[in-house]
């Protein structure tokens, strides 16, 4: 089985977004929906779904051009088109008769090798296929996406007792590698994994805030990032999801599960949904309400659950949370779990309910503990799942707490108590739902696991490390806040080159598994040195930065960058100079230095000019014919364009057509390692270019002519003009009136460095940097 073409039935919000994600992955997809009555366009429903996806914010498509991969149709005229699909997914109304009727029609036209799936979040998969042939049932597997499917990593794959192992394996591999999803294999039970355990946690938290007299805002402070969970924590998550959704899911689960699981909703929550119709963000009011003050500034009001009035409580702070901020996650969790007072009682209630329920569900919602952990991490944005958190605290400590509360231990925890084990995960083993150890190996490289073996850390600096990935490949890893680039981050690049040469490695990867690849240069340090007029030190620092970026390409061994998330400024320059890039599809990269009154100084200006010039026909690479390349580089840098995906990064020139885009961010270090090994055997050290054509003053004249009109029209400020003139000077090649000159890469690097230092000496630039550091927003001066 191989999935090369797909079909989605149902072009609602979810169906159209899933079709968009298939298109993002390069999979041609047929999108079918009903024929709307009294509409001459029989494909209007499906066509509207695509248009909705194109307008969605956040964007459903990584590149709007990918919408061309979606062919629309309708269920009356085009059912026969399903015969070409290797995978058919339904995302229609949540009614069992409608799904059964659809599957009866699909079976008549689908090819005998097609995998069939339902995106249902509540209707059991096995009930949908009653009456279908044994062959059809063997190829049927649930595929529960989370909304929005481009951004939420989790995909629950739900086999029925009839689903073949080949189908489970083929579809799981496809979902993980091609669609970029985090796959969890769930059992066909009510709520599957994430909703069953996640909604239980939300419902129980509602009870505890009443019991201990906390506000939703206080509870969210305690159950948010400080606990390694999403910033939306508990009650903000409920607002975002829709309180009506939580209401219906909880009621459905209450009816479908044993009494001791307690999905009973509190009266205040029922009042919100049933009486007030305050359903969260979709109605503008829920546990929180957005409003504006007299100056038009957005304010967040908090619901008083006693009076049902919204109150301006200002910025809510919980002392216990403030006390542990900045500490490692393990210390924060341990401190909060033993916290005294009502906040501690609340948090222990929430955490112990979560631990107890996750253990009770082991073997029920899923047959693997790691699937339960991953479902909560990928579906709700947790750093650790419940079993990983119990490992952090010590399982026997958790068990003692549960027993002290008078709880009966679920069989898994009783088995852990009997064995005396302190952790569920131990090296290459994990405990099964029955409490027995079993082999465990992550499907991709996880750096925190790898570094538990101290011999893997070849070199360690405070803000960076050199890690042995195995098989003769090293990793230069950054690990500071936002991975801002400073001395440690540059030195680890140098360390990597030396280690490859002296220790016989094949090459190295530049990457990490933090929140972002790199947000760019260490601006506080740059500003401090500029204000102290340490120009020699700054000149030396920029030279070192350029040395680090260019060394990624001009070394005797391959270097592969593995960027993801934010890769801005210097982070973008780093990836642009690697021999090859394995980028996460969710890559937000760009040369953004003009926002703080600078231009790229680490080779970014040079590299874009070189790439855009090379993209011209050979007959265009001289004189005035170079202008389109110069203008393109000027516009890209001068407007601080940032990609909204890796596909757009390729269009903007930050990625090459030969670079790899991986849909699954978790796989990029593994894939980058493989690429180093692929390049190493026949690798030839590149040499810097000496033949880059430039336009000289003709380029400056053309750009200044456009800038004059923009400045006169007040589209750009005085300091914008100053920055733009310096950028134009670098892009001209600095060769005066010689419009047919050719220069070296080093020549352009020198021009970059001079322009960077010139601008850094301007008060306007220093004001911009200071404003950015203070507010996080650019200053127009």
UniProtKB/TrEMBL annotation:
Domain 3-hydroxyacyl-CoA dehydrogenase C-terminal: 191-289
Molecular function GO labels: (3S)-3-hydroxyacyl-CoA dehydrogenase (NAD+) activity; NAD+ binding
Signal peptide: 1-25
UniProt domain 3-hydroxyacyl-CoA dehydrogenase NAD binding: residue ranges: 5-188
InterPro entries with a match to the protein in the record: 3-OHacyl-CoA_DH_NAD-bd (IPR006176), 3HC_DH_C (IPR006108), 6-PGluconate_DH-like_C_sf (IPR008927), ClpP/crotonase-like_dom_sf (IPR029045), ECH_dom (IPR045004), NAD(P)-bd_dom_sf (IPR036291)
The keyword Oxidoreductase belongs to this UniProt entry's keyword annotation: yes
Keyword Oxidoreductase annotated: yes
Catalyzed chemical reaction(s): a (3S)-3-hydroxyacyl-CoA + NAD(+) = a 3-oxoacyl-CoA + NADH + H(+)
Pfam families, sorted: 3HCDH (PF00725), 3HCDH_N (PF02737), ECH_2 (PF16113)
Limits of the Enoyl-CoA hydratase/isomerase domain: 481-605
GO biological process, one term: fatty acid metabolic process
Superkingdom of source: Bacteria
Gene3D superfamilies: 1.10.1040.50, 2-enoyl-CoA Hydratase, Chain A, domain 1, NAD(P)-binding Rossmann-like Domain
Keywords noted in UniProt: NAD, Oxidoreductase, Signal
PANTHER family documented for this protein: 3-HYDROXYACYL-COA DEHYDROGENASE FAMILY PROTEIN (PTHR48075), 3-HYDROXYACYL-COA DEHYDROGENASE-RELATED (PTHR48075:SF7)
Name this protein carries in UniProt: 3-hydroxyacyl-CoA dehydrogenase
